[in-house]
């Protein structure tokens, strides 16, 4: 076994850490060099993520047994040492994070990176926190990586400064600091009762906890779950989300669209490991299901009420969070794979949508603000129909190659994003939603789902309809009714990332069969926690210790 | 000792939560600081309270675990202190920036209309 493959699981943490540190050594004036380093590192993370994804499919069975890779840091075996665990779900999340980061980084090189300092290192540290949270097999380590990603996100949300960002950032930071404190209380309680923080060992220990300690343990898990739900943006813990996402810059908001999914990932992982131990804690059972439904309803109302595209997408993020929470909370295992498909598609779509927002805002001569949006709108004019024609670009001083038919690209990308977010055919959003609905109906017919599952179906359909109404309205306003429009100049590195993300979702549409098969196997591994526990706690093969350099 | 410890945690977290819900940014940051003290103490006591027992193996003592304090919460609390210290410092900067940009120390960036 080559030492490189041996150490592959730790690289998603080490690469962004080292890159972020190295980037700090270069002055901001050495832009080309810094950007190249950051791009290379992000590309490397994508390659590493894809390789891990390949390894978890059991393609090379002699390396990882049953597709679960365990990396003991400093070769200390679990549960004494901290372990990193790669299974299909975490490899998928790693790849998704890198696949979103690469276009977001490329996009921000065009202008966002120059708005403030230390953008590139912060993005790398955010990636480090994300990757670490997906990989770790230890609760306290999960806390540390959450803090790393939050600390980086505090920096990123304030990137560019301005009163609106600082105001939204203040709330965002305060809420997340409290969430971190709740996380700590939960972790401390769980340690105090169970005597371990290793997630796999917890999966065994919970069943042996004495009845009189059980209440304390449940309380610990509940408080921990509360912290996860704050990050996941579950109602009523999500009032910070929309203002923060709107205030953040377009590429930052795009990166944030995966951050709520870290909370979902943690909920999913813990609820499976703890089995029915977690009920009636927020990690499982009816609470989570109704919480998810309420989150969706909140998101729907928000979408319908939003006057601004960015705000609308932030509520679309909330809706997708709610969908995922409700499908996890329904307790139907066959819903996991469709939910994962939906999640991947919605992360890519909202990421692309946030970046697109950054570009469409430039089509207006006046700066988009909440005040301007509420003001009466000009009627549809003839000029609006000539949108494809190149128009004089006197106002714009942005240097770069002008893409012909900029408005055509923007419009097309907008339509694709709308299809993806609302779940209309033919793109992958439809497949994800359809698979969710079909699995729910199947489960109800076979009596595996509670009767309340119809609520999920109804809310999911309502979310699609509400999204379509709200987005059509904003689309009409954005592309047709603006009389004094300047056709913006787009640079290839701004339009390219959006196109890249949309192409990824189209790829998912075309290869929906293989992707779904993979996700089903990922869900299968996830719902078989014994495999995970055995892989972590079984004695490591001697090769692990010897292969260390 | 337990009752004093529990009371200390209770008073700290109670005052912390009250301050956290106040409208001035300085009160919020003090509340966060108090809460994090309370939680640090809480993590510490989750290793059970013991007097005069070292957390690492000592040559003069036997290897009986009952003679030692649990080292894990002590390690956890160190990490938690560092992290909450750093995030509070960062929050302080944002607080000052908000004060400078909005001209008020209200958490919403403007005074409530009375």
UniProtKB/TrEMBL annotation, chain A:
Topology of this chain in the membrane: Multi-pass membrane protein
Membrane-spanning intervals of the chain: 6-26, 38-57, 77-105, 117-134, 140-158, 170-194, 214-232, 244-267, 287-305, 312-329, 335-356, 401-424, 453-476, 497-519
UniProt key word Cell membrane: yes
Principal cellular location given in the protein's record: membrane
Question: InterPro entries from the entry?
Answer: CPA3_Na-H_Antiporter_D, ND/Mrp_TM
> Under the cellular component aspect of Gene Ontology, which terms does the record hold?
plasma membrane
- What domain of life is recorded for the organism? Bacteria
Which Pfam families has this protein been placed in?
Answer: Proton_antipo_M (PF00361)
Residues in domain NADH:quinone oxidoreductase/Mrp antiporter transmembrane?
A: 137-384
Localization in the cell: Cell membrane; Membrane
* Record key words, sorted: Cell membrane, Membrane, Transmembrane, Transmembrane helix
Family matches, as PANTHER family: NA(+)_H(+) ANTIPORTER SUBUNIT D1, NADH DEHYDROGENASE
Per the similarity annotation, which family is this?
Belongs to the CPA3 antiporters (TC 2.A.63) subunit D family.
What is the protein name given in its UniProt record?
A: Multicomponent K+:H+ antiporter subunit D
Organism listed in the record: Povalibacter uvarum
UniProtKB/TrEMBL annotation, chain B:
**Coiled-coil regions listed in the entry:** none
Keywords from UniProt, A to Z, are: Cell membrane, Membrane, Transmembrane, Transmembrane helix
Membrane topology summary: Multi-pass membrane protein
Q: Per the record's keyword annotation, is Transmembrane helix included, yes or no?
A: yes
> Which sequence ranges are marked TM in the entry?
6-21, 28-49, 75-98
Q: Which InterPro entries does the record cross-reference, listed alphabetically? A: CPA3_antiporter_subunitC, NUOK/Mnh_C1-like
Q: What GO CC annotations are associated with the protein?
A: plasma membrane
Enumerate the subcellular locations listed in this protein's record, separating them with semicolons. Answer: Cell membrane
Q: Give a yes or no for keyword Membrane in this entry.
A: yes
Q: Family assignment? A: Belongs to the CPA3 antiporters (TC 2.A.63) subunit C family.
User: What protein does this entry describe?
Assistant: Multicomponent K+:H+ antiporter subunit C
- Source organism per UniProt: Povalibacter uvarum
What taxonomic classification does the UniProt entry list for its organism?
A: Bacteria, Pseudomonadati, Pseudomonadota, Gammaproteobacteria, Steroidobacterales
């Amino acid at each position: 076994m080559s030492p490189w493959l041996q150490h592959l699981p730790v690289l998603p943490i080490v690469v962004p850490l080292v890159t972020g540190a190295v980037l700090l050594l270069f002055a901001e004036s050495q832009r080309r060099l810094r950007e190249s380093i950051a791009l290379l590192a992000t590309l490397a993370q994508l390659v590493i993520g894809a390789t891990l994804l390949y390894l978890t499919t059991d393609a090379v069975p002699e390396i990882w047994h049953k597709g679960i890779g365990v990396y003991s840091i400093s070769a200390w075996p679990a549960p004494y040492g901290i372990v990193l665990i790669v299974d299909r779900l975490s490899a998928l999340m790693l790849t998704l994070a890198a696949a979103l980061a690469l276009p977001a980084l490329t996009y921000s090189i065009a202008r966002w990176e120059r708005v403030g300092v230390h953008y590139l290192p912060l993005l790398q540290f955010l990636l480090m926190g994300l990757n670490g949270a997906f990989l770790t097999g230890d609760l306290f380590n999960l806390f540390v990586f959450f803090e790393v990603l939050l600390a980086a996100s505090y920096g990123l949300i304030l990137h560019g400064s301005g009163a609106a960002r600082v105001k939204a950032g203040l709330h965002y930071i305060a809420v997340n600091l409290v969430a971190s404190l709740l996380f700590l209380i939960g972790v401390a309680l769980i340690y105090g009762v169970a005597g371990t923080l290793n997630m796999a060992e917890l999966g065994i220990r919970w069943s042996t906890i004495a009845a009189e300690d059980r209440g304390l343990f449940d309380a610990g898990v509940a408080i921990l779950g509360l912290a996860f739900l704050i990050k996941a943006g579950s109602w009523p813990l999500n009032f910070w989300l929309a203002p923060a996402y709107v205030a953040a810059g377009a590429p930052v908001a795009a990166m944030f669209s995966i951050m709520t999914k870290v909370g979902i990932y943690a909920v999913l992982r813990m609820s499976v490991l703890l089995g029915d131990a977690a009920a009636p804690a927020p990690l499982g059972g009816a609470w989570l299901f109704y919480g998810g439904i309420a989150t969706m309803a909140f998101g729907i109302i928000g979408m319908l009420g939003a006057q601004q595209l960015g705000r609308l997408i932030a509520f679309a993020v909330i809706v997708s969070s709610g969908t995922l929470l409700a499908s996890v909370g329904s307790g139907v295992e066959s819903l996991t794979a469709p939910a994962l498909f939906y999640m991947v598609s919605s992360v890519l779509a909202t990421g692309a949508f946030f970046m697109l927002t950054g570009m469409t805002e430039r089509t207006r001569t006046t700066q988009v603000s909440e005040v301007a949006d509420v003001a009466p709108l000009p009627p549809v004019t003839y000029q609006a129909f000539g949108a494809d024609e190149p128009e004089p670009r006197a106002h714009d001083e942005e240097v770069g190659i002008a893409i012909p038919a900029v408005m055509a690209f923007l419009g097309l990308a907008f339509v694709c994003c709308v299809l993806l977010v609302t779940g209309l055919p033919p793109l992958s959003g439809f497949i994800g939603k359809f698979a969710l609905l079909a699995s729910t109906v199947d489960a109800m017919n076979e009596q595996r789902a509670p009767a309340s599952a119809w609520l999920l179906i109804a809310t999911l359909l309502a979310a699609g309809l509400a999204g379509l109404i709200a987005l059509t309205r904003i689309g009409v306003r954005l592309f047709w009714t603006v009389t004094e429009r300047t056709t913006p100049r787009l640079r290839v590195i701004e339009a390219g990332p959006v196109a890249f993300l949309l192409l990824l979702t189209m790829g998912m549409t075309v290869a929906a069969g293989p992707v779904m098969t993979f996700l089903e196997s990922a869900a299968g591994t996830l719902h078989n926690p014994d495999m995970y526990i055995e892989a972590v706690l079984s004695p490591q093969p001697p090769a692990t210790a010897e292969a260390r350099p | 000792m337990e009752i004093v410890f529990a009371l200390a945690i209770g008073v700290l977290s109670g005052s912390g939560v009250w301050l956290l819900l106040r409208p001035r940014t300085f009160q919020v940051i003090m509340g966060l600081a108090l809460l994090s003290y309370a939680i640090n103490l809480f993590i510490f006591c989750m290793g059970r309270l013991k007097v005069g027992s070292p957390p690492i193996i000592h040559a003069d003592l036997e290897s009986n675990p009952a003679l030692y304090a649990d080292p894990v919460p002590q390690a956890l609390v160190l990490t938690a202190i560092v992290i909450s210290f750093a995030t509070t410092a960062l929050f302080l900067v944002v607080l000052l920036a908000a004060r400078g940009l909005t001209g008020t120390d209200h958490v919403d960036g403007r005074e409530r209309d009375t």
